[in-house]
Structure formats: C-alpha cells, structure tokens
C-alpha cells in the first residue's frame, strides 16, 4: 500500500553514518513518530544504508530514503525522497545528480514511490548548505518566492525549510506554511527539546528531528509526544 504523508506531523531523520544502539533504535521506531527518514549529508554509503534499513524494517514504522548519493540508492524503502535544492549555487544539486540518476535508473524506477522535496537551505553554516553552495542570504520575500516555486511551479509534494543545526525563524516558517497550496511544509533544524518541537509544529505541517537523536537522545524522543499529543 502506498504511503500517504498527509498526516505526518513528526519524522526522525537518521544518519546511516552515525551510531545508534539497538535499544535506542527500538525506542525511536515505537515512539509514535510518523516516519523514519534515512539520510545524511556525508558518509552515506550503500552498505551503511542497507544496514540501517534492515534494522528499521523489524518495525512497522514507515521508512523513507532521502537520496543524497547516487551510490547509496537502496531498494526496499517505502518512499524515496529526492531533494531539489532550490537555492543551491551548484546546479548539480538542482538537476545535475538527478539527471545522472535518471540516466542510470530512469527506465526501471517505480515512480509511484518517488517524491520530490523542494529544499530551501537557510543555515549557511550547515554541511548541506556548504556542499550545495547554497545562497542563504535570503530575505523573507526570497524565501516566499522559493516556497511558491516549489509548491506552485514545480508541484513538489514537500517544501522543506532546512535550518539544519540551528533553530529557525518560526514566524517565517509559519508564513511559508500559509503560502503552500498543495505541498506539505516540512521544517528541520535544531529541534532538541519538546518545547522547540511544539513551537515548530505550530509553524510547519511536519517537523524533522535529526541531530538531537545523537546528541540529546531522551529529549529527542520526547519531541514525539510533544507533537502527537496536540
Ligand atoms: C536535517 O532538517 C534536518 O536535515 C534536521 O535538522 O539535525 O538540526 O535536527 P537537525
């Protein structure tokens, strides 16, 4: 059965290149989160992605791959999220890698499982912003234009406001949510407590908790309850 993201409020993003014990993974997978997203900005390989998928597959929680590396496209996920970094200065991250991937796999891809994410990088210090050479000197109008571009022009089912590593401007995020018509607005960045999770969940449709899983595990886990009980 195809997954429907329409009701997702909370997602954990797990990095195949970072360590999690079986007990930690167990607690994340049965936490009540709506999905586990597997992805990372560096060190993601076919092997470590297969390993993590196999461990998550012991649970019922939906599991999606956010594809950031052509070498690490592993079959068997429920969905495949394809980031298009709208404010990347390096066009490889807008269409280049995608073009290469479709040369290889375009004919055999199960398109029903593919979802594009229109990414807007907001934190210039983050690894992802550096890798994509993102132009993060954006004012509110720039961001709103990118949101419309992703939602109305490109019809991306996900518009992703990415503050990775730092907690963002929730007023701006909330305005972006008002703008989208078809997409779901994902917010990620610096959610490391139930309080921040609550605030972010008021501004975005779906919040993504990444780093805190590895740095403040109990607090990260508590973000699920904070969001799902609302
Ligand atoms: C990263 O948006 C996610 O891609 C989550 O950000 O790691 O700061 O939680 P954090």
Automatic annotation (TrEMBL):
Q: What is its EC number?
A: 2.5.1.n9
Keywords of this entry: Lipid biosynthesis, Lipid metabolism, Magnesium, Metal-binding, Phospholipid biosynthesis, Phospholipid metabolism, Transferase
Q: In which pathway does it act?
A: Membrane lipid metabolism; glycerophospholipid metabolism
Task: Give the enzyme's main class according to its UniProt record, as a single word.
Answer: transferase
Which amino acid positions bind sn-glycerol 1-phosphate, per UniProt?
Answer: 13, 160-165, 190, 210-211
Please give the NCBIfam families that the UniProt record associates with this protein.
GGGP-family, PRK04169.1-1, PRK04169.1-3
On subunit structure and binding partners, the annotation says: Homodimer.
The family database entries (PANTHER family) matched by this protein are listed as: HEPTAPRENYLGLYCERYL PHOSPHATE SYNTHASE (PTHR40029:SF2), PTHR40029
Its name, as the record gives it, is: Heptaprenylglyceryl phosphate synthase
